[in-house]
Amino acid sequence: MSTKEELLKRLSEGVLEMEEDDVAEAAQEYIDAGYPALDAINQGLIDGMNQASELFEEEEYFVTDLLLCSDAMYAGINVLRPYLPEEKNDVKHKCVIGVVEGDTHDIGKNLVKIMLETAGFEMIDLGRDVPLQKFVDTAKEREAELICLSTLMTTTMPGMEEIIHLLEKEGLRDKVKVMIGGGPVSQNYADKIGADGYSTTAVEAVKLAKRLLAIA
Amino acid sequence: MARIEIVNDGTVRECAEGANLLAELLRAGAFVDNPCNGTGICGKCKVRIVDGEVSKVSATEQKLLSQEELTQGIRLACMTCVSGDIQVELLQKERKHKVLTEGYVPEFTRDEHDRGYGVAIDIGTTTVVTSLVELASGREITSASMINAQKHFGLDVLTRITYEYEHAEEGIEHLRCAIVDSVNDMLAQVCRDAGISTEEILEIDIAANCTMMHMLLGTDARSIGRSPYQPVFLEAQKRSAGEIGLHAGMDNSALVYCLPQVSAFIGADIVAGAYVCELEKQDGNVLFIDIGTNGEIVLSQKGRLLCCSCAAGPALEGMNISCGMRAAEGAIEDVKITERGVEFTCIDGKEPVGICGSGILAVLKELIRIGLVRKNGAFVKKENIPEEDYRYPMIRMNGKKREFLICEAPELVVTQGDIRQVQLAKGAILSGFLALLNKAGIRMEELDKVMIAGQFGAHLPAESLTGTGILPKEVENKIIYVGNSSKTGAYMTLLSEQVKEEMEGLAERMEYIELAETENYEKIFAESMRFV
């Protein structure tokens, strides 16, 4: 029998080492031993993901490594989910994310979503090739505080500016922050279209989101 | 009004105050490297302001230029506005590029002709190749090649489509004129070389990728650049030379035949390649790859053809690489690392200027071989190498980041970011390859042949391709280079009506697979990123 600490370590390391099967197995052992599921997520899986982010910032890990780490993390979460306590009323920050209309490249968007989710945001993922109005409507309906827009193509970049105009038209612009990212996007472009922020990587995106919403 | 003087050759251009320097320089016909078309991403359009007033250094330039460059007055032309009369120095010169014109031709029966000439053209995003053919004998009399003049509107297809988005009808016309002028120049050149008149040309056959074909005919290419990526036409096109602005034939009456296409991302160039390589007639399992900014892949499973296109990015062509350049004079094209140090060879034996695609692949292959780059693509930590090890001095610390020093003067390094760019290209190509194999239910070992087409692939030795894992080790001895099969396809349609018909049928039978919609693609891609 492994102790709780040993299992938490195995979960964390499993995520860091991208060992999807082992993480699922460790999570099952952890549950079978009767330990609380929430700790396994916070002190095990998310700890591993945070360490992966650090390695990413040191250029040790790359985008696709983070994707594989997150696969392992979700394998663990899937095992733990049924044992999680009912969500308390602690309000999470809501964020609408998607790839703008005309573009179907979504790997970058998926990674930003994962990193923000890991950091505790409630993510509303609209997917890819999303009609511009839908970002605005969803943000309004769900009272999101943040919209994250991504595109990999220069042809679809103007959609980001259009969304900012739509937000202004609906009188929502001061209620929601807009973050943009993607291969051809730059800080320069973010300034030009009046977005609140730009980040080059998914890890930076988390810091940016927290800064924009003034979350410690 | 402000006055721009280019000190290199004394050219003077007048412009409005506040005008963008890059735009003005390009209009003046100056050579400024401009891969990202002035969006402030690539940092390649460096110029030096010798004298005069320009806008303040932007945040983008602070990031992309070194302190030393800034003190010398070096700026990014795309981020600089002209505030008054200035003198500017161009820092790059146009270099000679190598262009592939040759290729394998299968046996086929030519139509009978008793006179006249024909022209076969391959319009690539980067280069254009033209051959003048005597119709009666099928003999290629002479050929010419040049860089696609549309490069002023961006180096890749998408940047040029974006130009159409930004400038609408006028943009479409600019792009059309650029390529039509280029083709006319080449027609005049090959006819001059052969001592004939352009009036003796009876037919021009053209293979190109889908975007280039649209732009040549002045057709709106914008829909190719956005999901659902639908071109205006896919079928073979017939025009008269005069209709599209080409000078060929009596009263410009020569027939222009544009080869058929499969999808926005599998153009006539790939259909031509599949035909030339006789993919439908193969008994075994054959893979055909054209490596470039987009890697197009066709898998023939006993004659059934599946194809896909993957966005490899420009890294393999030497772009988006910190010391990268296109394959031109002075580009490092091969690298060997031994205990004695780093040895490299440059194109045309010139002094090194930068690293081209084949060079960056060769470096990476060597770095993986000697264990300086690990399976996940990260450099080994310097502290994990013993100080007496020959590899120790090769890794240099730039702040917290590791880089590999190829050459000290001029200083040429490979950064971790550079390796990531190549890794992305490798991941894209290999994942496309694996997705097709999965779809067909074939294992790697069951592949009988891998055929590599195109300008860029021809410069990549099998050991670099498998050493970096772009292609798996298992296929190393099964690789065949087929050269410029796109132009060969145009040569064949030019000489045979039957080939035209067969190629049109082939284009309809090729099954296109959209990778992004393939199940589990993200996972295949992530796993394809590892160096094994």
Write the layout of secondary structure elements.
The complex is a heterodimer of chains A (216) and B (532).
Chain A: H1 4-16, H2 20-32, H3 37-57, H4 63-80, E1 94-99, H5 107-118, E2 122-125, H6 132-142, E3 146-150, H7 158-169, E4 177-181, H8 187-193, E5 197-198, H9 202-212
Parallel strand pairs in A: 1-2, 1-3, 3-4, 4-5
Helix pairs in contact in A: 1-2, 1-3, 1-4, 2-4, 3-4, 5-9, 6-7
Chain B: E1 2-6, E2 11-15, H1 21-27, E3 46-54, H2 59-64, H3 67-71, E4 74-76, E5 82-90, E6 117-123, E7 127-134, E8 139-147, H4 157-194, E9 201-208, H5 210-216, E10 237-240, H6 241-244, E11 255-258, H7 268-276, E12 285-290, E13 294-301, E14 304-311, E15 331-338, E16 341-346, E17 354-355, H8 357-369, E18 395-398, E19 401-407, E20 412-415, H9 416-440, E21 449-453, H10 462-467, E22 479-483, H11 485-495, H12 497-509, E23 511-512, H13 521-528
Helix pairs in contact in B: 4-5, 7-11, 7-12, 9-13, 11-12
